């Protein structure tokens, strides 16, 4: 199932053998994208996105951080190192799930001199009802670690404490769930882990809902296409089609 899901974008990337060869001539030549994975994941989850942006000529830093071994505050140093790798280039961020909370926490006290745009994929910007419901269970605490326990929806949760954002932010939410058990713990439409309402945050620039599920939404060609659209133009394009996306990667 996943293999078929990835095929269109992989075909497009393979059809562009030169990859970043023309990067010095393109609009992405002076741009860097820092990728920040979600809770319990690794940089491998962003490999397709990494390839996509590299094919467009961006410098890509695919950050790995031990998401289940420390609090969000203790993980901020990993972001420092990733941003340093961008050098003097414009720094953009693309995050998944808890990676968005880590980005918000870092950007509250830091700002690259050449700050770009941010796209968050399914971020629990208002916290997660799943943490509220399961956070006291030993098994949940074992698998999510200290950072996972900070993502509740109440005033004690880190998302609430971070406040509004003050940078160009586009948020992509998913509306498909393949996990009815977890979805039963979430109020309203959701992607199986995060509600659409929870992805929103005061100060965001744009928001779009796509028919994708939480775990693999970063590999959806539609999500990748809209992410590129926002980083390049500062807005999403609701009319963007698969044909448009494939043309972008094969031109």
CATH architecture: 3-Layer(aba) Sandwich
Number of helices: 11
Secondary structure class reads alpha/beta
Average pLDDT over all residues: 90
Measured by DSSP, the beta-strand proportion falls in: 5-15%
Tell how many strands the DSSP assignment holds.
6
Helix content: 25-40%
User: Globular, elongated, flat, extended or rod-shaped: what is the shape?
Assistant: globular
| End-to-end separation | 28 Å
CATH class: Alpha Beta
How would a textbook summarize the main sheet? 6 strands, parallel
Strand order within the widest beta sheet: 2-1-3-4-5-6
State Rg.
17 Å
How many separate domains make up the residues? 1
At the fourth CATH level, what is the homologous superfamily? Alpha/Beta hydrolase fold, catalytic domain
Gist of the model:
Helix content is 38%, strand content 14%.
Topology readout:
Blueprint lengths: L1 H13 L16 E6 L10 H9 L3 E5 L12 H10 L4 E7 L1 H12 L5 E7 L7 H6 L3 H11 L9 H5 L6 E6 L5 H4 L12 H4 L6 E5 L10 H13 L8 H9 L1
Parallel strand pairs: 1-2, 1-3, 3-4, 4-5, 5-6
Organism: Paracoccus methylovorus
Keywords: Hydrolase, Plasmid, Signal
Protein name: Alpha/beta fold hydrolase
